[in-house]
UniProtKB/TrEMBL annotation, chains A, B:
Keywords: Cadmium resistance, DNA-binding, Transcription, Transcription regulation. It comes from Tumebacillus lacus. Pfam families: HTH_5. Residues 22-115 form the HTH arsR-type domain. This is Metalloregulator ArsR/SmtB family transcription factor. The lineage of its organism: Bacteria, Bacillati, Bacillota, Bacilli, Bacillales. CDD domains: HTH_ARSR. SMART domains: HTH_ARSR.
Length: 115, 115
DNA sequence: ATCATATATGAGCAACTGTTCATATGTTAC
DNA sequence: GTAACATATGAACAGTTGCTCATATATGAT
């Protein structure tokens, strides 16, 4: 990496913040969670699921998107344990995985609604 | 859009969730906030700024990244009003924009640390 | 004025992402 | 068994993103 800064301006701050840096896997995991919530389609899916457990077919109807597109996104969210699936015959019901996720999502929603 | 679902399985649920759908700009805004927090570099930047106001040069030192890369990301975050800038001479100091953002970020961090 | 430093930014490019399309898998009804 | 339905998934393709590199702008020191 090139030398871009000839002297660190605030040695004490840099040292202190360096010490408390997050572990690589923490950074990866938190970024993955936020990234998953950072897409309009997935926001709409999560907002729907906060209100009610829903099957793929119903979600596609609400979002007015293809079953395939919705299913792909549900897989993304499920892989990250943001939502969970319950199967009943041929119907798959999706739910927010836990209360923490619900809280996190609603905190973000609350933020944009109040500014 | 093709017909993928021959009968909506749960009319009542679909109708109820449809009614409470988010407005398009709410969806866009909340997705943008989460998306901005959904990148490892920006997570590290935010985690640093939660601890202390920092200048670009110091952030680059902590992250061990080029000044240019950091500056580009700071612009992204500032455009979304996630961080704010304070100028003092030729030095630009960055800060988390408000307490809501700090809370949102820490809620996400807390989530991945406790599972 | 010139030089050094701090930050900002446009272009370019490789990597990633979200949708579509086609198709596969699995379940229910007959 | 076959047909209808619900969901899942791989490939492909366009659009987006994050970094690098080069360069621009702006301030402070001399």
């Amino acid at each position: 990496m090139e030398r871009v800064c000839y002297n660190v301006n605030h040695h004490e701050t840099v040292a202190r913040v360096r010490e408390k840096q997050l572990a690589e896997d923490q950074v990866r995991d938190v970024a993955a969670i936020f990234q998953a919530m950072g897409d309009p389609t997935r926001v709409r899916i999560l907002h729907a699921l906060v209100q009610s457990e829903m099957c793929v077919c119903d979600l596609a109807a609400v979002l007015e998107m293809t079953q395939s597109a919705v299913s792909h996104q549900l897989r993304n969210l499920r892989n990250l344990r943001i939502i969970k699936r319950r199967k009943e015959g041929r119907v798959a019901y999706y739910n927010i995985d836990d209360e923490h996720i619900k809280t996190l999502f609603e905190t973000g929603l609350h933020h944009v609604s109040h500014r």
